[in-house]
Design a protein that fits this description.
heterodimer, A: 532 residues, alpha+beta, 7-stranded mixed sheet, 6-stranded mixed sheet, B: 333 residues, mainly alpha, 2 strands, globular
């Protein structure tokens, strides 16, 4: 039965292919190299979204192309109004956010956008029946209501300073998405939004095609056709860029270096919050010792990692906040100092044993470090970390595994982890360092427990005063010097090689995961053809 | 010529096909249960797979809710029975990883996989047979030595490596063929010309990776047949070389190859897996891996049924062909 249905489907697909083929043969071919078309852009990415429904988490950090959020980010990651007319009015107690909506905006099917769509979107995401794995990002929301056609009011359970950053998530049309199964309906693969582009095709594992939305409220984009080709393999992506099939692609440092030198191409290095760190589990006798943590923190040669592992495309990391961010606390940089690391360990009673590995009270200074198999950057970092630690007399046993293997061991074993979210320091640090979240899913993997940090994180999240928030995050970063919960190694630049035929390209500060929204094409709707 | 070589005994063939079909039902049933059982035992967590990167920042409560929503915490037999009963009524369920009904996932992809596999098979069988016969004719000759050593090299070469090599040569160096996708990345319409040009490299690579087996079998079979007494006799009687080669040599040399055709089906499926990935071919093979690593039960079960059916059909085909080629074998099933 099953097989027959499937075979029928196969036959039908084949027949259809042949018919469309025959029909198309009589028409002149519109194909050719991607760059030949003056108004189209084809970019190669490594990943594709699981779903295109914002209700399931697509585009939650903004830049979704098909959709708009109430707010959006500009090139400097500052919030700007999008579907909202202006930035929200926040009540004095920080509990009420009021958004006035832009009028006259239509979804791409012609139906008007209004406050009920906003209410529908947020309520659906918060519904326990909706399979949205990121819904805890909206934890603070108590309720969202429409006041008339063009005003939306959010009320929060607790004051949450970075809340406006959460309202960049895309708005779905109630009249379409509200009429079907949120988790598996048509809307998840055939979305309709208010954004600058319309989805024209999605061949999973191959590409997503978009065309410009002629009635976009922000004006019709000059790039009329936009295609994201999904190419997992770095070398294949580089090859297809070189052969002219792609106009742009994300590439690892070694490949970007080669291609970026070609005439007619430019390399864009996006600064990021994307860090790689080593968790120091408090439940491990070795990594739980503050002396060992401090020693490891200065025994690692971060500069060498940036130069050799990242070919210069990155920065040393001393905490979740990159050194060039306004949130970074100057003076918390730690130089590579092997002698001081050894001294700390000597003073703490870790004596060098016969095999060069230190021992204290019968405990050997040795612990396992897991990295996800197949991830070359993590593997390189793990090996470099182990080699640096060895010089200080600490043995780090690197092991590769999938998350399924690693997760049950996270309580006592170190993990080469990654993360980073530029929009607000709260997004990373609260989940990474709050003691009450220790071991909750992948939050606070090291089970870091520091009352001073807990207090500072809470203050920072509740205070509406930027100066007070900055002071609180300064406290967190200084505490991390005294008692590192993690050894932060590097912040990694994301490299993009782009054919130099358009004006208006730039990069934003990017988060850890970089899907469709990140990259120089974050603002493809505003690109203009280059004057020759 | 062919007409005289081969006569189709339709009756016995149909009976054998019928018997095999009856036998296939319990096999498929067992296979689906096996898939559910193995997947349930696997260390992969469907909830983590579903959540993707978002799962790395999700709270435990959220993951638990997701687990309940997806229904993956229910006991194995219950899940299997639910799947089976709804599958029998035509509802294949919803694929968690693709966020789409399973029937849609398969319908969108299986045609492209079948097209790729058929073309590759045609390349492998036709080229393998042709070269095999030519090589057998002058064993030890320059052609034989060249093709044989090439065949051994190809046998050892992984399909994805061949794929990358083909891309490097034909797309990058020569720039004559596209390096991946079903159509040019910038083009939306699926046209015959586009698909045809994009099909060349993957089909060729997949076909080449299968070719050595056909070539080596045919070469050996035909060479053995040419050594037999009836052939020597025929040659002595002055029967034309062409007739000897095709009438005697190929006919007995083809026997082992016919069984090979069926038995290569699983290999073809795994080969397609790598080739589809390298060439971004939107087929079913890539979906299979994703379904497996995400413990996407409904999709995995449907795809396994499909693959099992393909293997069973392959075996049936080779047995039927064998019976046709050598009437002494018959259609016992």
């Amino acid at each position: 039965m099953t097989a027959r249905t499937a075979r029928g489907a196969a036959a039908a697909t084949l027949a259809l292919a042949l018919i469309t083929g025959a029909a198309a043969c009589s028409a002149p071919s519109a194909g050719g190299a991607a760059s030949a078309r003056a108004d189209s852009v084809v970019v190669g990415t490594a990943t594709e979204p699981e779903s295109l429904s914002p209700l399931l988490g697509y585009g939650k950090d903004g830049n979704s192309k098909i959709f708009d959020g109430l707010l959006t980010h500009d090139a400097d990651m500052k919030l700007r109004p999008a579907l909202a007319e202006a930035l929200p009015e926040v009540s004095a107690d920080g509990l009420t956010y009021t958004y006035k909506l832009r009028t006259g905006v239509k979804f791409s099917d012609g139906q008007p956008f209004s406050a009920k769509d906003v209410v529908f979107t947020y309520r659906t995401i918060l519904d326990p029946k909706t399979n949205n794995a990121s819904k805890s990002e909206l934890d603070a929301v108590k309720d969202v209501t429409a006041r008339g056609e063009d005003t939306v009011v959010f009320t929060l359970k607790y004051p949450y300073a970075p809340f406006a950053e959460r309202t960049v998530l895309p708005i779905a049309p109630e009249h379409i998405a509200g009429r079907q199964d949120v988790n598996s309906g048509d809307f998840t693969t055939r979305p309709v939004g208010t954004g600058p582009y319309l989805l024209t095709g999605w061949s999973k594992g191959e590409k997503l095609s978009f065309k410009a939305n002629p009635s976009y409220w922000g004006g019709e984009p000059a790039v009329k056709k936009f295609t994201m080709a999904v190419i997992k393999d770095d070398d294949v992506r580089a090859t297809r860029l070189r052969s002219g099939e792609l106009d742009a692609a994300i590439l690892p440092p070694n490949l970007a270096k080669g291609l970026g030198r070609d005439k007619g191409r430019r390399t864009y290095a996006a600064k990021t919050f994307d860090y790689r760190n080593v968790t120091l589990p408090t439940h491990n006798t070795v990594t739980g010792d503050v002396a060992v943590r401090q020693a490891l923190d200065i025994a690692v040669d971060r500069e060498a990692m940036v130069d050799r592992l990242l070919e210069g495309a990155g920065k040393p990391a001393y905490g979740p906040v990159p050194t060039d961010s306004p949130w970074f606390t100057a003076g918390t940089e730690r130089a590579h100092d092997l002698d001081k690391a050894k001294r700390i360990l000597d003073d703490a009673g870790w004596r060098t044993g016969e095999d060069g590995i230190r021992v204290k009270d019968g405990v050997r200074a040795s612990f396992p470090l897991w990295y996800t198999s197949g991830d070359k950057i993590r593997q390189d970092h793990a090996l470099a970390f182990a080699s640096d630690a060895k010089k200080a007399g600490i043995e780090v046993r690197t092991e590769a595994g999938t998350w399924e293997v690693i997760e049950p061991r996270m309580k006592t074993d170190a993990v080469l982890a990654g993360g980073g979210s530029p929009a607000d320091p709260d997004f990373d640090q609260y989940l990474l360092l709050t003691s009450s979240l220790g071991g909750d899913g992948f939050n606070n993997m090291a089970r870091y427990d520091n009352p001073a940090v807990d207090r500072a994180l809470q203050d920072a999240r509740e205070s509406g005063d930027p100066a007070a928030r900055k002071a609180a995050y300064d406290t967190v970063q200084r505490e991390l010097v005294k008692n590192p919960g993690y050894v932060f190694l590097t912040h990694i630049d994301h490299l993009y090689v782009v054919n130099d035929t358009w004006d208006g390209l730039s990069t934003q500060v990017e988060p850890h995961d970089h899907g469709l929204g990140a990259g120089p094409w974050w603002n493809v709707e505003t690109w203009k053809p280059k004057q020759k | 010529m062919i007409r005289r070589l081969v006569r189709f005994p339709w009756g016995p063939m149909a009976r054998m096909a019928g018997r095999r079909a009856l036998f296939a039902a319990p096999v498929l049933l067992a296979v689906t249960f096996g898939v559910f059982a193995v997947a349930a035992l696997s260390p992969f967590d469907p909830v983590k797979a579903y959540a993707g990167t978002a799962g790395l920042t999700a709270s435990q409560a959220e993951l638990d809710q997701l687990r309940a929503n997806l229904g993956v915490d229910r006991p194995l037999p219950e899940r299997w029975w639910d799947w089976l009963t709804s599958a029998l009524t035509g509802d294949l369920g919803t694929s968690a990883v693709m966020r789409q009904p399973v029937a849609d996932v398969i319908g969108e992809r299986v045609g492209w996989s079948a097209l790729l596999a058929l073309c590759a098979f045609a390349v492998a069988v036709l080229a393998g047979t042709g070269l095999g016969v030519l090589a057998a004719r002058r064993q030890g000759g320059p052609l034989d030595r060249a093709v044989s050593s090439l065949a051994y090299t190809l046998e050892a070469a992984p399909a994805f490596w061949l794929g990358l090599l083909a891309i490097w040569f034909f797309s990058v160096r020569l720039g004559v063929l596209p390096s991946g996708g079903l159509t040019d990345a910038g083009s939306d319409v699926v046209t015959f010309g586009q698909v045809a040009s994009h099909l060349v490299l993957p089909a060729l690579v997949l076909g080449l990776s299968q070719l050595p087996w056909f070539f080596l079998y045919v070469r050996q079979g035909v060479a053995d047949a040419l050594d037999e007494d009836p052939v020597r006799g025929a040659r002595a009687r002055g029967v034309r070389e062409r007739r000897v080669l095709l009438g005697h040599g190929l006919r007995s040399g083809m026997l082992p190859m016919l069984t090979l055709i069926g038995s290569r089906v699983p290999e073809l499926i795994t080969g397609a897996l790598l080739v589809e990935t390298v060439f971004s071919w939107p087929g079913i093979a890539a979906a299979t891996v994703q379904a497996a690593t995400s413990v996407d039960f409904p999709l995995l079960a449907a795809l396994t049924v499909l693959a099992t059916a393909a293997v069973l059909a392959g075996n049936l085909l080779s047995d039927l062909l064998y019976g046709v080629a050598d009437p002494r074998v018959g259609f016992d099933g």
